[in-house]
Amino acid sequence: MDSVINNDDIYIYPELADINPMNFDEVNRCVEEGRKATLKVIDDINRKIAEFQAKS
């Protein structure tokens, strides 16, 4: 990764390693994996939103 990761970044990594990106039949599975990965970091997301709103 060429860019710098800073404290404002939240990365969401869904488990997609075994999914062929050309197989559009697995779209629902991709969405579900993204949802599960997002739920793992939802507290971090909400905390960042609250911090941003407190600064505004």
The run of helices and strands is HH
Low-pLDDT ranges? none
In DSSP terms, counting alpha (H) and pi (I) runs of 4 or more, how many helices? 2
Distance between the termini: 31 Å
Class by alpha and beta content: mainly alpha
Strand content: under 5%
Average pLDDT reading: 90
Q: Can you give the helix content as a percent range?
A: 40-55%
Characterize the biggest β-sheet. Answer: none
Number of strands: 0
How does the overall form come out from the CA principal axes? elongated
Brief summary:
The chain has one domain (7-56).
Explain the overall architecture:
The protein has 56 residues and is mainly α. It has one domain (7-56). The chain has helices at residues 27-40, 42-55. The longest helix has 14 residues, at 27-40. The protein is elongated, with a radius of gyration of 15 Å. The mean pLDDT is 90.
Q: What are the key terms here?
A:
mainly alpha; 56 residues
Q: How do the helices and strands line up, and which of them pair or pack?
A:
Blueprint lengths: L26 H14 L1 H14 L1
